[in-house]
């Protein structure tokens, strides 16, 4: 039987039950080439061009194998580096979009909003779990851009409120209209984790739960 190509050898070994792998390694490829040369028709041997084509195919397979090994090593290095960088974020504070804040009974709640334009006034309402307005704070006129604010944990009468989850509603005056703003809260990073399938790291924020690192606006 004349065997002129690697595919012929694979087909023959497949029939004999000797080919148990879907992918060929370098040793497998060399064995197939030797078998091809031993079983070729001596009266019609493979010409030089065909032989060089087979060698080029072998070089391609070998090169791809080396690239795969290098890429796997690089991926492992990047993952380790990402984990080390992520671990350094623990105990720092992340700024994330959130309509609520977890007040611990002592630490002031700090937040930030982005004004699309200058305004005559910005207002922050702190709302309790039963829907009542605990505190209403006026930040006065503000220029366009980032505006920071802080709530000291006291109500409108100046009394301390109990620990718990509070909603923060921020708005600004746009002409004669009062427009709502997306609120951002600073929260402590308790832990960092990396998804098993790769991608952005996740951060566990105190009182807010889990966020993707890509959703964090800033870290301080």
UniProtKB/TrEMBL annotation:
GO process annotations (BP): bacterial-type flagellum organization
Source species, domain of life: Bacteria
Listed name of the protein: Basal-body rod modification protein FlgD
Its biological purpose: Required for flagellar hook formation. May act as a scaffolding protein.
Domain FlgD/Vpr Ig-like, first and last residues per copy: 100-173
Family note: Belongs to the FlgD family.
Domain FlgD Tudor-like: 81-217
Keywords associated with the record: Bacterial flagellum biogenesis, Cell projection, Cilium, Flagellum
Key word Membrane present: no
InterPro entries per the UniProt record, alphabetical: FlgD (IPR005648), FlgD/Vpr_Ig-like (IPR025965), FLgD_Tudor (IPR025963)
